[in-house]
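agent> Task received from the user: take the single chain below, predict its 3D structure, and emit structure tokens. No templates, no multimer pairing.
agent> Plan: (1) validate residues, (2) run structure prediction, (3) serialize to tokens, (4) report one or two observations.
agent> Step 1 OK, no nonstandard residues flagged.
tool_call: predict_structure(input=
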Amino acid sequence: MVKIPVRNLFRVKTKEMLLGFKTDSVVVFEDNIELALSHREIIMLRYVLEALRSLPELPIVSKYVLRNYYSNGIYVSKSINKCFESMITDMVKDQNINRDKRRIVVDMYRDMYTSINLIYNEVLYELLDYATTLSILDFTEIQSDPDLLASIEKVKKEMTKESIDKSYEVLDYIIKNKPEYANNTIARAYISGTVNPNQVRQMLAVRGFVTEIDSRIFKYPIATSFTLGLYNIYDLAIESRSGAKALFLSNKAIQEAEYFAREMQLITMVVRSIVQGDCGSTETINWLVRDASMAGKSDIPNLVGSYYLNEETGKFEAITLNHTHLEGKVIKLRTALSCKYKDKDKVCTTCYGELSYGVHDHTGLGHSSSTNMTAKVSQSILSTKHLVGSASSGSIVLTDTAKKFFMVKNKDSYAFRANILGGKMKIKLLVDQKSGFGIKDIKPGDDVRKLNPLRVSRVSMFAIVTEDIKGNVEYYPITVKTADRYGAFTYEFLEYISNKGYTLDDNDRYVIDLDDWKSGVSFITLPQVEFNFLALSKAIKSEFKYMEQDSKGIPLETPESLLQKVFDLINSKLDVNIALLAVTIYAFTVADPENGDYSLGRFSKKARLARIEDIISHRSLGAGYAWEKVMDRILSPISFESKHPVSHPLDVMVKPNEVILNKYKTFKW
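)
tool_result: status=success, residues=669
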């Protein structure tokens, strides 16, 4: 076979290679690796290399071959994006490229855009004759599989979550492993990830449990697939409620989500831009990097790019997908919350992290950060019927043993019944370190409000140990986990642990003396209903709009704890990088609201969080005009006079002349 030096591919135009190159060859890459590639692989490599046209310094290595980014051996739409991501990462890490790398990224993005357009206009057009379509026969071929039909019959008999999950497992197995479906279009789309697996499960396995608009789960599941059809009145009735939910979500729910997005944008617009360099901040956040056993999935992908303090080297290091050794550890993390750049409306690239390479110089940093989050939430609501499979619930059901000690409070938490504590009998709580994985990091006097309880505990079970005056000891195990939900210790109980302390028993389990704990106070909480995308939207909105306050109206939440809560909340179903969330939350910090200063909280000893309504009402008159409560909160004489005016992009609406003069440095606020 002919050997082709990879850089020689630039000598041939993309379309000339597409139409004229038909020979399999060996390509010699600049990492000294030779690969035998089919002519199709070489043609696509030529298109991909267009992204490196403006960067001759970067070696063209063998990992830029698209086969490295297939999904289960199949080319998918994300393959090229993954390849481009690898190129940008290599460019950033290459110490021999001495040019301004942020500027290079702009050129690379332009060339990548060109490459994608060439593929769309040239390759796809030439391949129209080879396009594939879906046929009902593709569905019926798999639907008729005897193993799948048997699993569906089992669901009809048992009507349980376990039998539903088993039918999904059977479907997954036969699609991936039975050779007779190797060329089935549905099977190939499922394996490659080009279709949502929940949609395929609803089409071919069983629809499963469905929910009412308010997220209550219907008692019995739909024990058939859409391909087999819904053929009894119950299935038709409850599935129609699923349709009603889709209509509700696409109207009222999406309106609420989009209005929340607007409020977020009005507030976050004050964080104007990113600044190249290191502000020199030494402040960090203690961050527990959860693994899949703690949170259902690892935190690492959503921490990628952020800098943490490598305590072995004493230097800040960027987190990559390879930093799995950090899972289960508490690290010191740099974020926008601790940035010390002199201009409060800017964030340095070191505090923001290596995602800064994807932020153009003139990007409104706060606006783009909040929009990234709210856009994903809104799209999830619109797609909720397709993204969510069989529903699952986390409501509390007290066992007979639990009823001896506890009552259910506020429908979602455990509290001791009256007259259980404070008597002659000593009562202790026993929990293993896996359930209380963050307790060891709580020190006496720590402000637990800077923590998210879900980042300290994930309780599947605990035990109550009693000892009477005669020394008789009884052990009562209590199961907390319900379906896929785990309990979490409340702030009040974490404060109690911080002050009271704990001991370890012979099996290294935490032992917490409950002598001073009060009956009737919640100490473990657990979600009550299915946590769908509508609930996610409402929960996120609640964190910013209805912050818990003390008797003086001061939010009890801290920026650090809110970052942890929002990170955990949104990434329970979606994926948003911490850099974006940190900038968003930084925009909610205010310098000294008691004295009327609602500017960003950086450099202020009185800084704290404020709610949406308070910030929009006091921070900027221009933003206020774009908000809802114009008549009763904004249009008053005092709104036009402020001791602490804040520079906001929408100020031009009310003070155009002053804004222009300030732009040219002939006027100062």
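agent> Step 4: summary for the user.
Confidence is low (pLDDT under 50) at residues 391-395, 633-639.
agent> Done.
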